[in-house]
Automatic annotation (TrEMBL):
<protein>
    <submittedName>
        <fullName>Acyl-CoA thioesterase-1</fullName>
    </submittedName>
</protein>
<dbReference type="InterPro" id="IPR051532">
    <property type="entry name" value="Ester_Hydrolysis_Enzymes"/>
</dbReference>
<dbReference type="Pfam" id="PF13472">
    <property type="entry name" value="Lipase_GDSL_2"/>
</dbReference>
<feature type="domain" description="SGNH hydrolase-type esterase">
    <location>
        <begin position="9"/>
        <end position="177"/>
    </location>
</feature>
<dbReference type="InterPro" id="IPR013830">
    <property type="entry name" value="SGNH_hydro"/>
</dbReference>
<dbReference type="InterPro" id="IPR036514">
    <property type="entry name" value="SGNH_hydro_sf"/>
</dbReference>
<dbReference type="GO" id="GO:0004622">
    <property type="term" value="F:phosphatidylcholine lysophospholipase activity"/>
</dbReference>
């Protein structure tokens, strides 16, 4: 029987499951989706609330183990909240992917975010572009926005009421369910890439 694969989810509070009861965060709901869909993989929660791309890079070697088979990288939200320069965020993500893809030869799903307009059009353009450009450069799987599934069928105001916690930032359990439904097939694709790597 094939060995269960290990996927490390490197991220921030969105990955960690901030504000949610046990079992309702992104990683446990994703694990349940994989189990229900017959995908033989274990997801390790390496999400740390408040982490920036720099923080993710700093603990990358701690997050990766010899048994890691693939990685989900979902960082950048706290860089956005702090208005950090997109070129700094990009350099950190580049360094993460250089290690994971370049040195370890592990498949990656890179999950981006979309910048709001309040930092100006140049900031938004640079921030939004870094995820698809890095995904192409490193040949990773890519999803445009962690929070994108929340507004796939309703407007932002409705999504905030239905799917976001009172802090206005983090998805509630139902919001996480939508995110996992959208990204589950991509994670299954990520697992399939391990076999061909």
């Amino acid at each position: 029987m094939a060995e269960t694969l290990e996927i490390v989810a490197l991220g921030d509070s969105l990955t960690a499951g901030y504000g949610l009861p046990d079992g309702q965060g992104f990683v446990p709901q994703l694990q349940a989706w994989l189990d229900d869909n017959g995908v033989d993989a274990t997801v390790v929660n390496a999400g740390v609330s408040g982490d920036t791309t720099a923080g993710g890079l700093a603990r990358l070697n701690w997050a990766l183990s010899d048994g890691t088979d693939a990685m989900i990288v979902a960082l950048g939200g706290n860089d956005l909240l702090r208005g950090l320069p997109p070129e700094a965020s990009r350099a950190n993500l580049d360094a993460i992917l250089s290690t994971v893809v370049g040195e370890r030869a592990l498949p990656v799903l890179l999950i981006g975010l979309e910048a709001p307009g309040n930092y100006g059009p140049d900031f938004k353009a640079d921030f939004d572009a870094m995820y698809p450009e890095l995904a192409r450069e490193y040949g990773t799987l890519h999803e445009t926005s962690f929070l994108g599934p929340l507004v796939a069928e309703v407007d932002m105001a409705t999504a905030r009421k239905r799917y976001v916690q009172p802090d206005g930032v983090h998805p509630n359990a139902e919001g996480v369910r939508l995110i996992v439904e959208a990204f589950g097939p991509r994670v299954a694709e990520l697992v399939a890439r391990v076999a061909t790597n």
